[in-house]
Amino acid sequence: MPVYTPRALLFATLAVTSTTFGCSVISGLVTSVSDSISGTGNAIVGSSESLSDAVGATSGGVKPSYANDLREYTVSFVRSGAEPSTFSTGATRIAADHGITNWETNGDTASAIGKGLEDAHRTPAQAQAFCSSVGLSSDLSQKVVARSD
Amino acid sequence: MPVRTLTLTIALLAATPSAGSELGFVYVRANVGGASGGHAALVADERIFHMQAGADGLVRLTRDRWSHFRYLYADLQNRPLEVAYVELEPAARERVLAEFTRLYVEQDGAFAHRDEAREDVAWLEAFRDARELPPLRGAGLLSADERGDPRAAELAARFAPLLAESKREAAAALAAGSALRMREYREALALDHALRALEGGYGLASEALVTLPPELDPPLDAAARAGLEARAAELERTLAELVGSRRPDRGAGILLTHARYLAVKRSLDQGRLVLLDPFDGARRIEVDVLEMSPRAHALAVAHAAQVERQVRALVLEPTRVDEPSYTVLEEAGGMLERVASARDIGALYDLGRRRLPARGRTLAARAPAGDLAAALVEAQLRRDDAQRALDQRFAYDLFDRNCITELVRLVDEAFDSAEEARQAMGGRIEPGETFGFVPFVFFDGVRTRLRVARVERVPSFRERELARVEREEPGAWTRARESITLSSTTYEPLLRDSAFLLFTDDVFWRRPLYGAANLAFASAYTVYGLGAAPFDRGARLRAGLLGAFWSLPELAFANVRKGSYEFVSAEAVPGPDR
Questions:
Q1: Which residues from chain B sit within 8 angstroms of residue A96, using beta carbons?
Q2: Which chain A residues are Cβ-neighbours of B497 within 8 angstroms?
Q3: Do B357 and B330 contact (CB within 8 A), yes or no?
Q4: Which of B53, B192, B457, B518 fits B500 for a cystine, CB–CB 3.0-4.6 Å?
Q5: d(C-alpha B377, C-alpha B19), whole Å
């Protein structure tokens, strides 16, 4: 890429002489990130429109990111072969990152887990076995299996 | 960029990013400070994904709202943004977004695994040394010393008959607790404590509450009261569901729901909003506020108060009492308290992340069964393994693993083959290309090789302010005044921007000349800083030295430094979501 070389070399020179060149968290305002920034993002500036988005995001607004996260988590969990009893811990963590305390009764949970099992190519029978092994309630299990069918 | 054309680009801001089947590749221009070489991100609808290197040296995928990202980078950091929108099939777009979500979830799990191992070590060391145990998450929301709360007593009377099975479960889990399974042990402790608190009528711990300044805490109106009544009913339902659940980790949820119920009831009784503090005990961003001026602080307080009022109005509607929205209300209250009392504006930028209140407290507990020393060694190994795995996968490297390289890699990995990526995006940016880690090289690649439908530019805050000032006071004098940092009406010099005299981001042929002037100014400032060092801990000396350093690229026609802002009111910013 010769066309970039002079500017890129200048960049590289600055990069090795300055410790601040990388993609660190923006300076001035945010100088460091704690070891485990909660990270769901979705922070808002404060105008009425973005506040409205943030407040209504779970009711069909901007994005169903809790459901997406739980779906991807389910896929990863199934494929990883992790200890079944730890599924609940991960689901609780994901729900908490979206401001949800009781994920078992959340309306998006069954669908998200069901779709995740479908993505992981689990049959309804395997989905049922999965629900039992990770300790989902019978009510939630039924809904999950119905969604993954 | 010529100022006259800015008005056109400002108009472009009205366009919502990435409508339809598009993905936007965002290029953030350079500026002094973190990510000073520039930055990149992926935007789809209102969502933005970008990789950031934290203080721990690990690169982590961050998700944010486009409006928030733009506020941080284009306004506060004063960096122009460019967004190249690539057209692709909806299915291909979803694959790319799913790949980012997958990594996000995977990283979250990996960090949580490391943190859990760290927590295990801390608890086992405390047991071994007979020291005070680390705080248990959520246990500090309620207090046995506040048993006199009549609402807590009412709740205890209603729930006591429902607790028998859960109490047996908690007692059995505690009795079976093993030093080798500390997470389960902590969950059992939390459940046991939560049930005791519920049965014993524990009241709200005063330290767990947000204390708003009286002038910023208006009485509840009828609509807000109706919203809170609905929330209280919903919280009681959730509490019953959690008590009846068999989830072993439900203790923290019971504590939080119990505390929230009491806070809502107290709000109704007192006619003023009582909120749990979501920042206390929660993980959060640390913010440097050393330079915040009284004027900027006053603006931030006014802004925080306005935000809190808006959130109240939005959340406290009987039809919108869902839990995530209520969490935003708690955040708004916590944010206002912090901004008003502690000059901690960091909370302002954390709003909307939906953290749950989790104030911890140390409990007295017997050590779990098993060989503590052996369990500690095992936990330490697990912690070190988890940290090593994180380092191997996510350690930051300017050339090989930065915000650009990881963005390129993730997009590429969304497809099964190079050919599939090429077909989906109209071209391909290959991971590991020469100079591929450089932000502008990456963005040039996006523009020239991918199927780009359009490129939009988001001007920096100063560019927009400059356009406004020049509209109001056209003329050479205005331009000259605004080009000098010391006389500009649109910028106030900050030490963190380094010492400089002339803006060079909006000139090109004069840039080396301006750079020489900046170098001379920074050199003189360094001498001044040397004299001031005993009084300001070297802050001005550092600004002078950095000022000289960042003048050097200007001598070669390159601009990095653009200045930045302590605070920008969101209302000052045009656009559809501001």
A1: 355-356
A2: 28
A3: yes
A4: B518
A5: 53
**What are the CA-CA distances from residue B266 to residues B142, B223, B271 (Å)?**
14, 17, 8
Q: Distance (Å, rounded) from C-alpha B462 to C-alpha B466?
A: 6
Contact of A40 with chain B, judged by CB distance below 8 Å, is answered with yes
CA distance B300 to A45: 12
Sketch the domain layout of chain A as residue ranges. 65-148
Q: A-chain residues within 8 Å CB-CB of B353?
A: 38, 40-43
Q: Could you tell me how far CA B389 lies from the centroid of its own chain? A: 24
| Alpha carbons B160 and B154: distance in angstroms, whole number | 10
The mean pLDDT of B309-314, rounded to a whole number, is: 83
Residues of chain B with pLDDT > 90, as a percent, come to 64
Give the residue ranges of chain A where pLDDT is below 70: 1-64, 148-149
Chain A residues within an 8 Å CB radius of B55 = 25, 31-33
Provide the pLDDT confidence category of residue B320 given band limits of 50, 70 and 90. low
Q: Do B558 and A10 touch (CB under 8 A)?
A: yes
Q: Which A residues, 67 through 126, put their C-beta within 8 Å of a C-beta on chain B? A: 68-69, 72-73, 75-76, 85, 88-90, 92-94, 96-102, 104-105
Cα separation, B40 vs B404, whole angstroms = 6
Interchain proximity A45–B68, CB inside 8 Å: yes
CA distance linking residue B70 with residue B165, whole number of Å: 51
Question: Residue type for B108, please?
Answer: D
Averaged pLDDT, B81-91: 95
- Report ipTM (2 d.p.): 0.80
The whole-number average pLDDT for the span B7-35 is 66
